[in-house]
């Protein structure tokens, strides 16, 4: 049996994690020092059911899940405190810009930048990824870039 958390806020965050609404919560000050860190168990309980992407979106297309969001000048000085592993993509917002970065192939970082004032959002940029990747020109660009690094 787990020991009860020391504070009400930790109890609240742990309850959200237990309900699978969150996986991790790290609260830090402006200098990047951790104030509260609540991390969920990496393994699912046997009796819990989690909907797959097919169940939720009812299609076979690959769906990309973000596990890193940067919002603020100095959110985290040390990403290791988040225990993230490798992200599928990184999204961030800076002033009016919305940015999505993803590693394509072995050596290409694709960066998509939109403007919130123009109605662009992270989801809208992510929808473009399959379309971009499906183009012959983009595939050729990836191939030529990878050849340069071999």
UniProtKB/TrEMBL annotation:
This is Uncharacterized protein.
């Amino acid at each position: 049996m787990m020991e009860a958390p020391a504070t009400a806020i930790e109890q609240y965050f742990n309850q959200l994690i237990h309900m699978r609404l969150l996986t991790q919560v790290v609260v830090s000050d402006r200098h990047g020092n951790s104030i509260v860190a609540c991390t969920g168990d990496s393994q699912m309980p046997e009796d819990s059911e989690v909907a797959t992407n097919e169940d939720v979106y009812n299609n076979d297309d690959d769906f990309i899940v973000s596990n890193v969001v940067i919002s603020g000048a100095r959110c985290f000085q040390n990403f290791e405190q988040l225990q993230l592993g490798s992200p599928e993509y990184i999204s961030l917002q800076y002033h009016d810009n919305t940015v999505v970065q993803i590693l394509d192939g072995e050596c290409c970082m694709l960066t998509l930048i939109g403007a919130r004032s123009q109605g662009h959002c992270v989801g809208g940029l992510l929808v473009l990824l399959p379309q971009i990747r499906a183009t012959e020109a983009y595939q050729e660009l990836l191939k030529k870039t990878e050849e340069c690094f071999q």
